[in-house]
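Continuing from the previous page of notes. For each protein in this section, the sequence appears first, followed by its structure tokens. Read the first protein now.
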Amino acid sequence: MKFRSMIAVMLGLTVAQGAVANPGNDSRNEGVIHGYVVDAVTKKPVKGVVVSAVVGKTSVSKEVSTNADGYFRIKQLPNGEMSIKFDKKGYKFLRKESVKVKDGGVVKMNVDIYVESDEYLPSDLEHPTLRLIEGIL
């Protein structure tokens, strides 16, 4: 009788070890995209930017919002190419194409977004003639 009990216990331990070694949710293969979103001119963090990761050419997407520090983190992403979108009212919409997430990889993105306006961006005003026209000189 003791021999049968010992066999049952050993068999139970073997099954339990297999369950721990091979969990059903294997998070090692899931990717992460994270980073900061800042105002392109002031370099201050932008809170409330909706960051979306769209998987390949599918309609599958995950969304998060930036916190007070402008930080975002999108977890549990499948392997492959993503399109990352940044959207907030008052700022220009931004899309980053062909962001690759590899097997369990971590991608860091630091993004500058511009305020939405009809004015020229600083890079547009670098030419001296444009600065004269705008009365900046």
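Done with the first. The second protein uses the same format. Note its length before scrolling.
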Amino acid sequence: MIRIGKTREIWLVATVVLCAATAVVFAESKKGNYAPSQLGILQQVAPTQLTPDASYQVSAYPAPSLDLVPGEGLSEVRIYCGTCHSPRYITMQPPLPAATWEAEVGKMNKTFGSAISDGTSRKIIAYLQTHYSTDNHR
């Protein structure tokens, strides 16, 4: 039995891996993929020819339904909240405490710069607290 030192064993494995990688690269170059005449050329299928008398139709973009609870302040929520995000974000939330809804509207104003007036903010907060808070959750 012949014993090879650890360093020589690592060197031997590295040499074998390098030789195998070189053989793969050489084989690929012989396929013609790297021939000078092929460089920079994309080989792809030609697009389908469209006929001038064909009729093409696109269906309507699916608009999500608004399933917010009717009530005072709903129009303000649709106008101001719906400007930046879908009103679905409101219904996707678990029922939140009244103070959290107030903080959320404040965050939209202060952090995200929604520029909602104080009177409108109070209406939005009242609507959210009335219909989507833990106090009034059905």
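What the second structure shows: The longest helix spans residues 6-30. Helices lie at 6-30, 74-84, 88-92, 98-110, 118-132. We return to this in next week's lecture.
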